[in-house]
């Protein structure tokens, strides 16, 4: 007998039968299984989905009066004896933590935008705390948070984009050799860079098609609108206001709003220009699918006069030639999902390889370090149709290193 419950009520020993949500939002490879693993329970609770289904005849029911640990051994054994599909591999705890951090930061960003729309000044203490958490995460596990934020859904873009740019700014600052204070300053600028979009009509921001000239002109006002808003609060640092105003400037001088050129653009604004564009073009939007990360870097490298060249090369070093999250095709015919960089050779990342059968079912992935000697395989092509077959949270499973 299937029963709908809140995800927060889900517990070990329950027979999980799926989320009350679209299949693409499902964080497990198997739709139905006995919930035995605490890491799987954490992944379910971190999914952001509110309700799920359980089978009370094949596992335990919700019992608020008695936690699972206190139930009788007979009840536990009965649940464990029920036939169950094999659960998905546990997520890397660092990825679970990054999921939670990203969701908390997204909520803080949404609150910041709502404050702006209501005419209230940003809660700078809350903003600084979010940036501190993001900076710590980037230092402790650079790949985890950057992996999670690039798997955002199209309708999360406005808010998670600010989180992503913040994380990318901190990571780029570390590659550039900035100290911790400077990295956090860069991150705060990235977190608040797009606050001006709070004053742009939602129907324009989420328009499922190309903007006309009038709509484009309205969107291009967001740096000035954000700057005007932040200037009302003396507690907002000058460098944050500058990043907000000038993150769309180009080194050739044909950016906006002031047409600044070269080093006349501040260091943090030049960093933000790179991080903003990268996250924008690799993100799914209502009107387009995100680019493969490696293709995005290739496109940006060909954009003459847009980015500070030395900073862009440092950005490539930060992410790798094949950034985490990239899909690559291998000489062996398989495809791989990049999960980690090899600092000694950016052309040979660590990947999880998989292949598809005739029924379009993906094989179980395996870890492959392309820097191993002798080299077991090599990348021959970026991207591929497999990207469309890897769902948002399924991709998160692939990113897992298999710990836990």
Tell me what the structure shows.
The chain has helices at 38-45, 73-81, 93-117, 124-140, 142-149, 157-175, 180-192, 202-205, 213-219, 222-230, 238-246, 267-282, 293-301, 309-319, 386-389, 392-399; strands spanning 2-6, 15-19, 33-34, 51-55, 327-330, 335-340, 350-354, 366-369, 379-382. The chain is an alpha+beta fold. It has 3 domains: 2-81, no CATH class; 93-319, Hypothetical protein af1432 (Orthogonal Bundle), CATH 1.10.3210.10; 327-399. Strands 8-7-6-5-9 form a 5-stranded antiparallel β-sheet, with helices on both faces. The chain has a 4-stranded antiparallel β-sheet with strand order 1-4-2-3, with no helix packed on it. The longest helix is centred in the N-terminal third of the chain and has 25 residues, at 93-117. Residues 65-90 and 385-389 have low confidence and may be disordered.
DSSP strand content: 5-15%
Number of domains: 3
Number of helices: 16
* Class per helix and strand makeup: alpha+beta
Q: Extract low-pLDDT stretches.
A: 65-90, 385-389
| Quaternary form | single chain
Rounded mean pLDDT score: 81
Q: What is the CATH domain class of the largest domain? A: Mainly Alpha
Estimated radius of gyration: 23 Å
Overall geometry: globular
Biggest sheet details: 5 strands, antiparallel
Distance between the termini: 31 Å
Cross-sheet strand order for the largest sheet: 8-7-6-5-9
The CATH topology assignment of the largest domain is Hypothetical protein af1432
CATH architecture verdict of the largest domain: Orthogonal Bundle
Order of helices and strands: EEEHEHHHHHHHHHHHHHEEEEEHH
Report helical residue fraction: 40-55%
Q: How many beta strands in the DSSP annotation?
A: 9
CATH superfamily of the largest domain: Hypothetical protein af1432
């Amino acid at each position: 007998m299937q029963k709908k419950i809140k995800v927060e009520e889900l517990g070990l020993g329950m027979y999980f039968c799926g989320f009350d949500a679209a299949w693409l939002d499902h964080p497990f490879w198997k739709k139905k299984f006995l919930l035995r693993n605490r890491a799987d329970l954490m992944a379910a609770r971190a999914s952001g989905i509110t309700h799920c289904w359980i089978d009370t005849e094949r596992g335990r029911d919700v019992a608020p009066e008695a936690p699972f640990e206190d139930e009788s051994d007979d009840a536990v054994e009965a649940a464990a004896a029920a036939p169950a599909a094999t659960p998905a591999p546990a997520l890397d705890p660092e990825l679970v933590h990054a999921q939670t951090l990203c969701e908390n930061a997204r909520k803080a960003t949404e609150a910041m935008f709502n404050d702006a729309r209501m005419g209230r000044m940003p809660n700078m203490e809350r903003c600084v705390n979010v940036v501190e958490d993001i900076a710590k995460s980037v230092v402790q596990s650079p790949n985890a948070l950057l992996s999670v934020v690039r798997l955002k859904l199209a309708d999360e873009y406005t808010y998670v984009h600010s989180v992503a740019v913040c994380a990318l700014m901190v990571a780029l600052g570390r590659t550039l050799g900035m100290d911790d204070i400077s990295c956090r300053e860069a991150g705060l600028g990235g977190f608040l860079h797009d606050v001006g979009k709070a004053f742009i009509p939602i129907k324009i921001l989420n328009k499922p098609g190309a903007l006309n000239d009038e709509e484009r002109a309205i969107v291009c006002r967001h740096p000035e609108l954000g700057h005007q808003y932040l200037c009302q609060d003396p507690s907002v640092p000058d460098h944050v206001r500058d990043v907000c105003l000038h993150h769309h400037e180009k080194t050739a001088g044909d950016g906006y709003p002031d047409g600044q050129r070269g080093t006349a653009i501040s260091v943090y604004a030049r960093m933000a220009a790179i991080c903003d564009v990268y996250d924008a073009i690799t993100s799914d939007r209502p009107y387009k699918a995100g680019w493969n990360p490696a293709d995005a870097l290739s496109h940006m490298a060909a954009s003459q006069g847009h980015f500070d060249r030395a900073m862009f090369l440092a950005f490539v070093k930060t992410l790798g030639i094949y950034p985490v999250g990239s899909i690559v095709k291998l000489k062996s015919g398989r495809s791989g999902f990049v999960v980690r960089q090899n600092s000694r050779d950016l052309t040979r990342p660590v990947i999880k390889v998989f292949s598809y059968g005739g029924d379009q079912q993906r094989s179980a992935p395996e870890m492959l370090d392309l820097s191993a000697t002798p080299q077991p395989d090599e990348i021959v092509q970026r991207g591929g149709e497999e990207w469309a077959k890897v769902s948002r949270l399924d991709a998160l499973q692939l990113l897992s290193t298999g710990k836990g």
